[in-house]
Amino acid sequence: MQDEKSLLAISVPEAGKRLGIGRSAAYAAAANGELPVIRIGGLLRDWGDFVRAQGLPLVTLHGLRHSHVSALIASGVDPLTISRRNEHTVRCQSGANSLFRSLLAAANSMA
Where are the domains of the chain? Predict the structure, then answer.
């Protein structure tokens, strides 16, 4: 986990936690300008431009996140560490659940 002083930005929900307000209130504060935010729409556009310029297959940033989780599972990292690293609860999203379960089963069978 990164040292708090080394963080350049935090998520809106994390800012809400640190301010002692709920997730919805934090998003409302971000929407009305009370909470300064960095919008990543340009980052997403720049990512697509970069991938196309390099001749790489178009993979979304979210897809890279799933690839990262798959690589962690394949290398034997325990699910709790993975969920903490990705700021998820222990249970998976329903769509990814069966994929990650099969990857975990394969990793366990190799152990």
Answer: 59-110
| pLDDT at 21 exceeding the cut of 90 | yes
Q: Are 58 and 35 in contact (CB under 8 A)?
A: no
The verdict on pTM exceeding 0.70 is no
Alpha helices in 4-93 (DSSP H): 12-19, 23-31, 41-54, 61-74, 79-85
Residue 9, C-beta contacts closer than 8 angstroms, at least 6 positions apart: 38
Residue 87 has φ and ψ, to the nearest 5°, of 55, 40
86: nearest Cα among 6, 11, 8, 21: 11
pLDDT, tens digit, for every residue of 43-93? Answer: 667 777 888 889 988 888 778 888 888 888 888 888 888 877 776 544 544
Q: Report how far residue 103's alpha carbon sits from residue 17's, in angstroms, rounded to the nearest whole number.
A: 33
Question: What is the rounded distance in angstroms from the CA atom of residue 3 to the CA atom of residue 61?
Answer: 24
